[in-house]
Amino acid sequence: MLEPTNNNELPAIPGKRYFTIGEVSDLCGVKSHVLRYWEQEFPNLKPMKRRGNRRYYQRQDVLLIRQIRSLLYDSGYTISGARQKLNGEEAGEDHAQTNLLVKQLIGELEDILHTIKGISVKSV
After folding, report:
1. Taking the domains of the chain in order of start, what are their residue ranges?
2. Three-class SS of residue 2?
3. Do 24 and 57 form a contact (C-beta atoms < 8 A)?
4. Selection from 96, 73, 94, 92 nearest residue 84 by Cα
5. Is the pTM here over 0.90, yes or no?
6. Cα separation, 35 vs 53, whole angstroms
7. CB 39 within 8 A of CB 46
């Protein structure tokens, strides 16, 4: 995610539901045309569009833009590399959660198996 040192450079995100492209530009330190370009390059960046194709970003969009900005400007990633990093992190988190869930299920099944073996031995 965004490094804590970079958070200090950018203004705090207000408690609003929607932000215009101009507001997001100020909040993230990125020009409007760059935001429009990033929408084309990063498929998970999809602001809502209303009347006359006006863009309305939500808080998670602003956080994602800050993360993209950090990867590109501070960490030196290319657009392609940043896209892979973002997709890899999401996939990695899902994979880790799946592994944890599978280990928990295996443990529960082993407990059930031990219980069943204990009951069948006592019954005989």
Report:
1. 4-76
2. coil
3. yes
4. 92
5. no
6. 14
7. yes
Kindly report the CATH class assigned to 4-76. mainly alpha
Burial class (CB in 10 A: 0-12, 13-18, 19+), 63: middle
Round to whole Å and give the CA distance between 93 and 27. 27
Q: Of 10, 24, 87, 93, nearest to 55 (Cα)?
A: 24
| 37-62 tens-digit pLDDT | 999 999 999 999 998 889 999 999 99
Amino acid at 35: L
Contacts for 28 with CB less than 8 Å, ≥ 6 apart: 10, 35, 62, 65, 66, 69
Could you say which DSSP state residue 70 is in?
Answer: I
Six token digits for residue 84: 């892979």
Residue 75 CA neighbour count, 13 Å, CB half: 18
Cβ–Cβ under 8 Å, residues 2 and 85: no
